[in-house]
Write a structure and sequence with these properties.
By secondary structure, this protein is of the alpha/beta class. It is built from 13 helices and five strands. 33% of the residues are buried.
C-alpha cells in the first residue's frame, strides 16, 4: 500500500486514467465502503460497467489487481472512519428516523474527512488573496453558482471591488478580461469540470492571475501549477450531493478573510446600520 494519504494517491494517478476510470476513481474516494466490501462483479453492476473494467482500473493505478485495491480501500476505511459511522446504507431497510440518522452521520463523515485532509496553507493563501487583492472575482457555473454567489455576497460586506462571474446575461470574459496579477480569482467547480471552467482556468493561468479552485475530492486531470486547490467531501446517501462540508469550508475561509481585514468590522457595522435605516418603519 502507498505510504501517502489514500486520497492524495488516487488524485495523483488521475493523469493516467481514462475519463470513464476517473468516474470510478471519484466513486472510490466518495464511497470507499463499497470498494472495501463489495466484489468486483457487484461494483461493476452498481456502476454499470463490465467486471473487466474494474480490474483494468485497479491495474492502471499500478496495482496487481482488484484484490489489492480492495485491501487498500479497506485499510483507508479503518484509518479514517470513526466506529460510529455505519459502512453502508440500504434505504429500503430503514424507517424515516433511521434514514435521517444515516444522512446525519454521512454529513458528519463529510465534515470529518474534509477537515482531516484540508490544505491549511492553500486556505490561508486564498484568504489573504481575497483580503488584500486589488480586485476579487468569484466564478461559478450551474450547481457551483450558488456557492460562488454566497462567497461574493459575503466578501462584499467586508471589502469593495468584488465581482461575481459570469453576470446574468453576460459571459465569463466580461469579468475576467481586465484582471492583473495584483488581483485574485476563485473558481468554484464540482465533479465534471465544464469546458467553460477549463477555459477560465487557462485564461487566468496565461494572464498570471493568482487563483484558487474550490472543488470536491474527485480526481482532476490537467491541474495547473501555481493554483491552490481546496477540496470538500460532498458524498451523499442519495442521488443529491451534499454541500454541508463545502459551505463549512467557505465559512472558515470567510472567517480568515475577516481576520486579515481588521477594518472590515467597521464596514460590516455600516452595512448593518444601513439595513436598519432602510427597513425602519416610518
Amino acid at each position: 500500500m502507498p505510504q501517502k494519504d489514500f486520497h492524495e494517491w488516487i488524485s495523483e494517478k488521475a493523469e493516467v486514467l481514462t475519463p470513464s476510470e476517473v468516474r470510478l476513481a471519484t466513486h472510490l474516494v466518495e464511497h470507499p465502503e463499497k470498494w472495501a466490501f463489495e466484489s468486483a462483479s457487484q461494483l461493476a453492476a452498481l456502476l454499470d460497467v463490465h467486471r473487466s473494467t474494474i480490474v483494468r482500473f485497479a491495474q492502471n493505478l499500478g496495482l496487481s489487481g482488484f484484490p489489492e485495491l480492495q485491501a487498500m480501500a479497506r485499510q483507508a476505511l479503518l484509518n479514517s472512519f470513526s466506529p460510529s459511522i455505519k459502512l453502508s446504507l440500504a434505504m429500503a431497510d430503514y424507517g424515516l428516523s433511521d434514514l435521517v440518522q444515516e444522512i446525519f452521520e454521512r454529513e458528519i463523515q463529510n465534515l470529518q474527512e474534509t477537515y482531516r485532509h484540508l490544505d491549511a496553507e492553500a486556505l490561508e493563501t486564498t484568504a489573504r488573496g481575497l483580503a488584500h487583492a486589488g480586485k476579487v472575482v468569484i466564478f461559478g457555473r450551474r450547481f457551483s453558482y450558488p456557492i460562488a454567489l454566497y462567497l461574493s455576497l459575503a466578501i462584499k460586506t467586508m471589502r469593495d471591488r468584488v465581482r461575481l462571474a459570469p453576470d446574468p446575461g453576460g459571459s465569463s470574459i466580461d469579468q475576467l478580461f481586465d484582471l492583473t496579477p495584483e488581483d485574485y480569482a476563485i473558481i468554484v467547480s464540482l465533479r465534471r469540470h465544464s469546458p467553460e471552467v477549463q477555459r477560465a482556468l487557462r485564461f487566468l493561468a496565461k494572464a498570471g492571475i493568482p487563483r484558487s479552485l474550490l472543488t470536491d475530492v474527485s480526481p482532476m486531470t490537467g491541474q495547473q501549477d501555481g493554483m491552490r486547490v481546496i477540496r470538500a467531501h460532498i458524498g451523499s446517501t442519495s442521488v443529491l450531493e451534499s454541500y454541508t462540508a463545502l459551505i463549512s469550508v467557505c465559512h472558515t475561509m470567510l472567517s480568515l478573510v475577516h481576520c486579515f481585514l481588521p477594518e472590515s468590522q467597521n464596514r460590516l457595522e455600516a452595512v448593518e446600520n444601513a439595513w436598519s435605516r432602510f427597513n425602519k418603519n416610518k
